[in-house]
TrEMBL record:
Sequence ranges assigned to domain Mab-21-like HhH/H2TH-like in this UniProt record: 378-444
Name this polypeptide is given: Mitochondrial dynamics protein MID49
Pfam families: Mab-21_C (PF20266), MID51-like_C (PF21297)
Location in or out of the cell: Mitochondrion outer membrane
Region described as Disordered: spans on this chain: 79-125
Gene this protein is translated from: MIEF2
Boundaries of every Mitochondrial dynamics protein MID51-like C-terminal domain copy: 150-343
Amino acid sequence: MAEFSQKRGRQRDEVLGSTVDFLLANARLVLGVGGAAVLGIATLAVKRLIDRATSPRDEDDAKGDTTCLEESWKELTLLKTTPRLQPRTPPAALSQPASLPAPLPSAPEGPSDTEPQPLPQPSSPAPLCLTFQEKLLAFERDHVTIPEAHVALAKQLAGDIALELQAYLRNRFPELPFGALVPGGPLYDGLQGGAASRVRLLVPLVLEVGLWGLVPGVDTVARDPRCWAVRRTQLEFRPRGSSPWDRFLVGGYLSSRVLLELLRKALASSVNWPAIGGLLGCLIRPSVASEELLLDVQHERLELTVAVLLAVTGADAEDRLLLAWPLEGLAGNLWLQDLYPAEAARLRALDERDAGTRRRLLRLLCGVCRGHPALGRLDRCHLTQVVLRLGEEEVDWAEAALGERFLQALESLIDSLERASLPCHFNPGVNLLSGLREEEIDDIGFALYSGLQAPECLL
């Protein structure tokens, strides 16, 4: 009986051994060397448990138990130290054990198909730390730069609207000599950032040479250095009524307010904007909420605001540009001097002299202030004076120094707010902060000071 039990045990061992060999052969192909080692250790442990459960216990059991315990600790250590490999997709047929030929002695040692290269350990990515200069350039790329297609479309719409409005003015007021309507503004001078959202459309008045003269605003009852009065002259030789513009005189001066009201009524009630918009593929509506003459243009690809500006040019030797602007009080009939063309030309000349980035800095400042609850009170005119003042200095204006110039502009703004004085670059007698209340200046100054401590928060 004992002999029969030993024979059955040997047969069971042979069957179990064959099974283990079969599993290991396939595991080597599927799991690789590391996975086969893990499976082999686990199978060996299971085999020993079966042997101990079925084999008779003799006098060496205590010694065998100690040896098995030591080997089990070693196997556990191997299980912990064996690297875990990512499972691979098994081949189509793995039901039969594959016998691989032994490598030739002369063959160079190297990786084979059945022994995969050890996978590199995944390393945690290093934290991405960008400098302020890099963050500023990223902000410019994502929030300031306007797609060229939008710029071209906005210019095309503005040009078409200018032609339609000029034809209307000639038909509606044939006795008034208006000049050619010229679209322009920051979008045309490379100073617009964020979106192609605003265009200036100048409507020039053609005044007779020798019949008109300019009087500085400080010499009028308004005492406003920003403005000029357009006075009718030569009345003894060319009496009133000799000029078609005499109908808009108030107290011997050409009234900007009267002309504004005339054009406002015409744009709101006489122009067939639905027909013009249908012809141009957009929707055009005059803005009734603003005191300025604005046209809101809605296109499927962008929204545009066209500011219609009545202008007087060439009335003196210096060729000043004067705009009919909705001014209050005693200055209501005066004309506001527009210094934007001179400012844009100066910035362009400075940048061309040293291949600088002054205009880019202005666009960045406008992009930061736009939409900010406190800094939104600073318009393009305020920021232009700061850039012009810095731009005249002989410092590095290369792209690599753009971040430094940005911080310097913030410091300059804070200094101006502390003194409550920001003089106009081309007219130092005008303080551009005079229109802000003390509380507004405090809010702007606090926002700028906080931004100077952590400039990334402004982007």
